[in-house]
């Protein structure tokens, strides 16, 4: 979609496979608090953890008050609900719906990550879930840019998550890394920013943390933002794959990236 | 203000004109499940598109509607900057289910629709798949308009496709008292929703582009309830309606026709009636209200664009089809002018299309006749 430059107002990364300080999905209550996690799939838990970190909240704290109608949510990911879908299909076929848990209902819908983030953190602006494969992170940032440009939100919480569950890994057919990242973007591109460069013929970076598929680009951007804040940047990252094509993004800071 | 240059859909009745004919005749496209399936799922029927039950059904339907709409609008993706935004509720999760049940291969990069769209419209610049539940098509239309207005595309196509999944039908069966035989929107004795197969495509272009102009696309308003994952919220619905009116610079009292979401569930229909009253009736409006799902089922992410296709046909023909399956309106619809039994004649005027999805995601579109 469109190329754009967005300000990064905050970011958070949650990579439990490589970061000992990042809780695993089944221990998400340590960060998020106990209430409301029953029946949540792993990808949704990881996404909540990444947003929690991006917002800089204390462990167990959840925002209260009125929902913010000027904050949009754009989530991305592809395999978060395939466990629920596969399990429901098997159970409904062998034992019938009487054996199905009603707690599975939200997870049967592919936009569960976006809607749970909205409910959890009280974001009532436009709410979208991008499931466009390996470049989903790029498409999510481009969608956020479009929402801002169209005046549909003042701020967009962009969050990506994939969970390397048994079903997701089997379906993916290659090594999948559990992980999530969140970036909070606005349109005025000052401070640390991300530029959406569009399509590139091949990946520009090697990801040291693994392959988070639909969340890969956002994890890359959030890690790059850490580096840019520490060293000044700029850092180019990419996401994509053979079928979906590759996209490039550049994270820079106001002083170095400005030309 | 962009225009809709072409629109089509594919439902259990066939293409857009066949679907329009079925609605105006009051036909219901539900096909009952066999007794064993109905008992196992606690779901009585579905609204299927006839044909093969192979892998990639939704992608095939999407390609069909995209090619038809592009041809009708004279779109050549090799010469113009064309972007396609696909809205879907259930993606190709039916293929994941088949893979889980009998190991039929399910290529992960065909869970979304990028490769299907690129094959159907060679030269297309970008394809984005949005999984936005039952309002996905409405969200895709909002972004398509944003892209055209921002000058980022010469042509933006909002498209949608969905095929019923076992997992979603299981969730419908889980909350049903008994298997539902047909969808009865806004009926006192409604027994719940049923899924239908569906696909639709709407071609959005700047008004200056040469070619057909079927309707003015005024605006699509978006909101999220941020209240509950599966239950609707009147506050979220009214916010999307008001957002659409504000963006369109129109008054609620001028809305003459509403193509409602109307799912035939206990919760949606009274909540939607209340939202229509709070926004339109409170402003002295009194629109005709219709709904499609009694005829074509709930086509999930395609539902909004199926509604847009019918609304555009209605604008051009000066008619609104009846709510198929409606016998006795629910008490909460008192004062809401539901179209019953036969089409009504309404000269083309401001038309609103509602779509509300799981997760509290709401999209409301406003159309006007093209001059």
Instruction: Going across the biggest sheet of chain A, name each strand in turn.
Output: 3-2-4-5-1-6-8-7
Classified by CATH, the class of the largest domain in chain B is Alpha Beta
Residue runs with pLDDT of under 50 for 5 or more positions of chain A:
none
The largest pleated sheet of chain B is described as: 11 strands, mixed
What is the CATH level 1 assignment of chain A?
Answer: Alpha Beta
Number of helices of chain A: 8
- The counted number of beta strands of chain B is 15
Structural category of chain B is alpha/beta
Sheet bearing the most strands of chain A, described? Answer: 8 strands, mixed
| Average pLDDT score of chain B | 97
Mean pLDDT of chain A: 94
Percent of residues of chain A in helical segments?
A: 25-40%
> What is the domain total for the residues of chain A?
1
**Unreliable runs of chain B:** none
Give the SSE order of chain A as H and E letters.
EHHEHHEHEHEEHEEH
Work out the helicity level of chain B: 25-40%
- CA radius of gyration of chain A is 18 Å
Number of helices of chain B: 11
